[in-house]
Amino acid sequence: MSRTTTTEPKPSDAQAIIDAVERMQAPVVSNIAVGRMPPIPAIIGREHGVIEVKSVRDLVDEWRTQPERKTGFAELTTVESFIAHFNRHRSPDASVVFVNEATPELVAVYNYNGEGDKPAQFGDYGARYTFPLSDEWRAWAEVNGRWLSLNEFAEFLENRIADVIDAGALDDEHPIFEFSRRIGVKFATPSRLMELSRGLSVHVKHEVADHKNLGTGEGQIAFRESHSDPQGQALQIPGALALGIPVFRGAAVADVIALRLRYRVRDGKVSWAFTLHQPEAVLRQSIADAADMVEKVTEAPLFWGTPERD
User: Fold this and answer.
1) Of 55, 137, 155, 256, which alpha carbon lies 20 to 30 A from 230's?
2) 63-94 in b/e burial notation, b at 16+ Cβ within 10 A?
3) How many CA atoms lie within 13 A of 189 on its CB side?
4) Which residues on neighbouring strands pair with residue 258, listed in sequence order?
5) What is the DSSP letter of 78?
6) Cis before residue 104, ω within 30 degrees of 0?
7) How confident is the model over 243-271, as pLDDT tens digits?
């Protein structure tokens, strides 16, 4: 004789809680699970015949001896510190670095969203490095393109001559020589710059040439100005100089930067001007070099841009 067994349907977890509350006389604390989230402690009770669920987070937070999770962004002042901080706090699957040229800055996000269908994260824990310009770069940028009197030129060089390097000591294949070859100038040595800052006697000679086309009767007048030293020899003034300075404060390696050196004579007085060669390109390259170092040392995913914002 066969036996028939009847199995009652199992109530859902939510229904089980409701049934328990219906039977209870006082509120209870229970864990409620929502989706992938860990169980959330809550107080479940009845108020005027209505079932109410209240979070106990505030009550629990009052008694915490440590934060529930890490948050906030550290502000680092060197790339090396940024790398060390990243390696200390990184998460294997959720830490990335963003490079923002506009600011410029490096932003590490330690709790960034995982790849593919991995759970989303808060993205509120990380570090920043804001590429502070060095004192050396600021000093040269301040006089960039300005005409300086001989006294201003001499005073500036006296304070900044340590920034100037002898380009002749660089490798012949260094990119800086492409600049000098393209515009046909030679680099000044630090000693030659100091000689120029002590004073330069320039003899100015003006010549006027009158050319006439006998066939058409058209004429052309050409003006030519030549400069020579007191011995009547043509002046040999270097047209460029090379700096060996860090673009950003705290950088471990100095950048080699080319400048044009110009002079002019007015009313018998000589003025000088420095012009940085493509300063925007120099800044972009320095940022790219720092980002490349971060990527190689940390092996972190690197993105050019900014993290998502609300």
Assistant:
1) 155
2) eeeeeeeeeeebebebbbebbebbeebbeeeb
3) 5
4) 242
5) S
6) yes
7) 999 999 988 788 999 999 988 878 778 88
Whole-angstrom CA distances from 299 to 39, 66, 125, 129, 294 are: 35, 31, 19, 18, 8
The pLDDT value recorded for residue 300 is 94
Could you tell me the two tokens for 278? 């493509």
> Distance between CA atoms of 98 and 106, rounded to whole angstroms?
6
Distance CA 23, CA 44 (A): 12
Token couple for 59? 């009550």
Distance, in Å, from the CA atom of 91 to the CA atom of 84, rounded to the nearest integer, reads 14
CA distance 134 to 275: 18
User: The sheet that has 28-32: what strands, in order across it?
Assistant: 28-32, 40-47, 50-55
Tell me the C-alpha distance between 180 and 12, whole Å: 80
Distance linking the first and last C-alpha atoms of the chain: 69
Nearest to 240 by CA among 275, 197, 194: 275
Cβ–Cβ under 8 Å, residues 247 and 221: no
Closest to 297 (Cα-Cα) out of 249, 244, 252, 248: 252
Give CA angle at 64 (61, 68), nearest 5°.
Answer: 75
The tokens for 67 are 């934060």
Cite the DSSP H helix spans in 144-278.
150-160, 176-183, 190-197
Residue-wise pLDDT for 197-236, tens only, equals: 876 544 444 343 444 444 444 544 444 434 344 444 555 6
